[in-house]
Structures are given as structure tokens and as C-alpha cells.
Amino acid sequence: MITPISKELTKELQEKIDYKTKPIGSLGTLETIAKQIGCIQNTLTPILSKPTILVFAGDHGVVKNKPVSPYPQEVTQQMVFNFLNNGAAINVFCKQNDINLHIIDAGVNANFDTTSNLLHHKIGYGTNDYSVEKAMTKEQYNLALETGKKIVRKIYSEGTNILGFGEMGIGNTSSASLLMSYFTNTPIEDCVGKGTGLNNEGVLKKATILKEVSNLHLSNISSPEDALIAFGGFEIVMMCGAMLEAASLKMTLLIDGFIVTSALLAAAAIDKNILEYCVFAHTSGEQGHEKMLSFLQVKPLLNLGMRLGEGSGAAVAFPIVKSAVAFLNNMATFKSANVSEAK
Predict the structure, then answer these.
(1) Is residue 11 part of a domain?
(2) 83 CB burial (10 A radius; 0-12, 13-18, 19+)
(3) Active-site residue 8, yes or no?
(4) How many helices (H) does the chain have, and how many strands (E)?
(5) Whole-number average pLDDT of the chain
(6) pTM
(7) Active-site residue among 167, 235, 245, 310?
(8) What is the CATH number of the domain that holds 86?
(9) Which domain holds residue 183?
């Protein structure tokens, strides 16, 4: 159960922000973030403790039978190895910004060495092909959701209070498009983008395939759970559970791009209070993401044309969040600095 963030200190936080040595409102979005995190933590002096990004990896059965991605499924496994060898963009950005990084096998179609620095939570070797059947069973859905929550509880117990989310899974932009279409009531062709690099013809084929998938399942969907069972990936469902648990523990959630936001759409449909805990890192270059953010009525911090995934946008945006908390805690007031205020 997610409780709405406390508004008890809103007025005091605003006064603290306004009396800093600056014109009122002159730090723009940084002031909004500072006030939000102060309210989440219910304190005038918030801290960002052990920032962490979770990257959930999983495969999608549809990739084996339908041309929804220019890359073969084994790239998911190969990229997990790249993460573990510190070779990916997310590794670089997390190291640069002192962010802890955990890679989770939620459902990759491969076996990994149990001694590797990987969180082993495989639900299955990829989902079913949702062009012919539901992506997963209800039992798999429940296990993935609860596993996501369990992972977050452990990280929270170790002192983390700000959590970013990322993903890896060839074909997962297709799942995200289907979920976006369902939760936002948007035609599927307006949700589908290039993913990992489809050309215009490939995007049209992908949209046609996903329209057929949507038509196959839509009449049997009446809840967020049903939508995730029909269209989701194990990594998306596990991430959804992680998000719900993080908000219930009053952590700050740093939301990445298109696939991560599809998981959030599902989480918000389960409990709308989650949105109060979210800071939106960036607008993805994937065409549906801007529409998702518009549906949620939120404004992201950055628009750099990024569409890599992995939580890379969250990692790049984190220093902005850090700056917001730093000015709130450390910047002088007019009184303490003996600076005259505006008349």
C-alpha cells in the first residue's frame, strides 16, 4: 500500500527555498525536485543515501517467430555479460556518478554462472510468444511481481533511499508498446517506434504484428494484472513490483525511458499514489515515450534524444537530482550571508 507523500512540510520547504540567496524561483526545476524529495522524506534536510539502479533483463518469446527487432534474441544474454564486465553505457555512467548498480536475470533465455555478480531471479527462459498465447501464466506473474518487491526490500534495508530503474531485453519495446496502448487507450500504431533500430518498413511491420496481438488478447483483459500477463516481459513485471515496493517504502524513484515507463503505467494503474514518488529522468527518442509522459502529465528533466535503455537516462539525470538536494541543504540564506533581500 502506497501512502500519499506528506504535505506537512510543504510550506516550510517552500520558505526555505525562497529565502536562499537567489531571486524567487530562479533555480526552476531544481526547486521543484528539492521540495518533492523533502516531502517524500518528510524533512527540511533530505539526503540521497546509497543511490542505486536496478537493471532487469528478460527475453520475449515473440522475437523467435516475428520480426519485431533487428537484433537476435541472444543479444540479451550478450549484453548481460557486457554489464557484468563493466562495458556498457550504464556501467560508465553509474561509475561516473557514484551509483550502485545491480543486474537482475528476470527471465533471460540462457544460463549464467551462479558465481557471477548477477542477481539470479529467473522466472523462465523468456516469455511465451504472445502472438499465439498469453506471455505468462498468473503464477509466473505473481512470482515476478513479488520477486521485484523482495529485491527492493533488501536494498532498502541496506540504506538506499533513491532507486533508478533500467532494463535489457530484445523485443521489450514491443511489450512496452502493447502496454502503452492498453493503459493510455492509444492506437497501437502511435505507440510503436524503431526500438533497437528498425527502418520505416520494419516499424510498419512491427505495428501490424502488434495490432494483431492486441486484437487477440484485448477482449480478455480487464485489469492491470491481465494486461501484464498478456503482454508483459518478466523484466517488466518484476520492475513493476520493484517500483510499487519502493514507493511503499517512501523511496524516491528515478524513472528512465520507454520500457521503464511502461512498467510504471502498470504500477500507476495498480496504485496511482506511486506517481508522487517519481522523478522522470528524460524523454526517450522512442516515439511513444513523449506520449506516455503527456498521459501521466509529467515533465522530464532532460531531452537528449537518448533511446538506449539500461537505465542510462536515469544515471545521466541523477546529478541534477543531487544538485537539487545540495542547494536546499547547503546554500546560504539572505540572513546568514548578510545579503539584502528584494524590496
Answers:
(1) no
(2) buried
(3) no
(4) 13, 6
(5) 95
(6) 0.96
(7) 310
(8) 3.40.50.10210
(9) 52-319
